[in-house]
């Protein structure tokens, strides 16, 4: 799939997400009990769970931005901006019903997944941004698409160890019967934010 806002094509991964794009709006759907998570309490031998993803491979430093709207139906339903560098090396920036309040959440997986909640959200939509700065990635959220709240800065390992980064979109419904996710106001910018913590 090609989106005019992005300088790279997108390829579907995982279960069928019924992805579609029209008039600047990308939509996808998670099926029942679909998620992308490796429990930190596990023994390391369990397979990673999976959910619909639509990913591409940008070059260099970048910012991927979208307003994410989720038709919440069950706890932990979420719309996600996703970064992937390996089967056990990936990260999620989510608008998630966690478990009964819309919340910006993050998951970073390096072998096993961690899980952290950030700010709560009024309503079913929020702006999310993932940026690449050299070997690091940054997550931000915004209520208006103008002023950004710093959420997280992290790495997923050296690229020579993990492969080139894929970035894009994901939908999940870990305990529910599925949910629909909409992404609009999609934008791509070459280069990182000028400052990660000043709201720009």
UniProtKB/TrEMBL annotation:
InterPro entries: ConA-like_dom_sf, DUF1349, UCP022704. This is DUF1349 domain-containing protein. It comes from Streptomyces bangladeshensis.
């Amino acid at each position: 799939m090609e989106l005019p806002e992005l300088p790279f094509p997108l390829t579907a991964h995982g279960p069928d997400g019924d992805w579609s794009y029209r008039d600047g709006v990308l939509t996808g759907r998670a099926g029942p009990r679909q998620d992308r998570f490796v429990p930190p309490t596990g023994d390391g031998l369990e397979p990673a769970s999976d959910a619909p993803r639509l990913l591409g491979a940008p070059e260099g430093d970048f910012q991927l931005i979208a307003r994410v709207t989720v038709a919440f139906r069950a706890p932990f339903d979420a719309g996600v901006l996703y970064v992937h560098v390996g089967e056990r090396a990936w990260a999620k920036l989510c608008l998630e019903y966690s478990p009964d309040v819309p919340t910006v959440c993050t998951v970073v997986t390096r072998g096993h997944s961690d899980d952290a909640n950030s700010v709560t959200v009024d309503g079913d939509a929020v702006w999310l941004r993932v940026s690449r700065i050299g070997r690091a990635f940054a997550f931000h959220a915004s209520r208006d698409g103008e002023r950004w709240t710093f959420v997280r800065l992290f790495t997923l390992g050296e690229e020579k160890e993990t492969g080139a980064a894929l970035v894009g979109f994901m939908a999940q419904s870990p305990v529910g019967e599925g949910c629909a996710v909409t992404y609009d106001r999609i934008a791509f910018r070459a280069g990182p934010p000028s400052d990660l913590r000043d709201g720009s």
